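Priority: medium. Attachment 1 of 2:
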């Protein structure tokens, strides 16, 4: 893939996501080859599009080389007179001791920090450098965790305020770009450690699966588009059904249990999810376990009960009505 192809894909990805001339973009830059390629290409597109760029580097302080990576990003910003923000986040000690929680917690805190920066600089979008390799790994991880249709679609190229323009671009192409243009980048040494689940998928599981199908990556990426379309179809149908069996006003949605129970389990989940998003917003961190808690209310013998969910959500049952609201 040539430089102009990467630039063209980036341009299409941003403009296709709704980025307009003069918009403020927060670029999530770790210092790795994929994010440095993103930074270099968006910087070159910026003059003709009039975007204002804010470079954000989030340091979790988990590795000894993290200060060097932050300095690398700062040096690039100084060289090209770009606005840069370096923010250090410390994971709680209790999380650091649990490898299974480190990755997920670090990701959640990173997005929280990026959104705080975006609000502060009045940015319309946050742009990340997730690539095709990341997408394949995410799909496999979601499958292993028992995800449904949405999870098998992987990451979205546009998810609210997050834009991922390079989900179809292999990491090797981005590495080739930074080497060819002599752009400094850092290598995260923990990526080689199989202590982390994603790394085990990358270094152990995927090589075995590719022995069975050398075109595995292309197959998963192609199927992810089909799952994304299926998820979109279900969401649209669930939105229509919610309008038929529920009522909503001022941050509250009421659902008829008897009408909800007429639906297939899959559609019950989708309708409840739509109700939650209507109350808490599309960025709510929905999990299957949340629906299980609501399902307990639906099937409970008690006509009056309630459950609290993360994000200050309160779910009440009163006879045939489930009410979802924020406290």
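Attachment 2 of 2:
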């Amino acid at each position: 893939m040539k430089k102009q192809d990467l630039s063209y894909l980036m341009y299409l990805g941003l403009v296709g996501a709704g980025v307009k001339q003069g918009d403020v973009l927060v670029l999530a830059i770790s210092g790795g080859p994929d994010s440095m390629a993103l930074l270099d290409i968006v910087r070159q597109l910026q003059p003709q599009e009039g975007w204002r760029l804010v470079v954000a580097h989030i340091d979790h302080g988990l590795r000894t080389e993290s200060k060097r990576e932050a300095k690398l990003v700062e040096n690039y910003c100084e060289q090209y007179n770009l606005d840069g923000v370096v923010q250090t986040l410390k994971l709680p000690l209790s999380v650091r001791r649990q490898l299974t929680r480190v990755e997920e917690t670090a990701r959640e805190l990173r997005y929280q920090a990026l959104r705080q920066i975006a609000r502060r600089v009045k940015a319309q979008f946050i742009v990340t450098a997730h690539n095709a390799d990341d997408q394949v790994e995410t799909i496999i991880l979601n499958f292993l965790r028992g995800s449904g249709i949405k999870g098998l679609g992987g990451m979205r190229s546009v998810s609210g305020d997050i834009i991922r323009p390079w989900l179809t671009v292999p990491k090797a192409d981005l590495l080739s770009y930074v080497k060819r243009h002599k752009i400094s980048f850092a290598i995260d040494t923990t990526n080689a450690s199989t202590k982390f689940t994603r790394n085990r998928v990358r270094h152990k599981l995927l090589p075995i699966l590719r022995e069975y199908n050398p075109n595995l990556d292309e197959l998963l990426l192609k199927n992810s588009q089909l799952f994304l379309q299926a998820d979109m179809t279900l969401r649209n149908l669930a939105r229509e059904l919610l309008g038929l069996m529920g009522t909503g006003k001022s941050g509250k949605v009421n659902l008829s249990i008897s009408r909800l129970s007429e639906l297939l389990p899959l559609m019950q989940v989708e309708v409840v999810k739509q109700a939650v998003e209507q109350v808490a917003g599309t960025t709510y961190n929905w999990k299957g376990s949340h629906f299980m808690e609501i399902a307990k209310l639906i099937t409970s013998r008690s006509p009056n009960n309630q459950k609290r969910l993360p994000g200050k959500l309160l779910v009440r049952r009163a006879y045939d009505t489930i009410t979802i609201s924020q406290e």
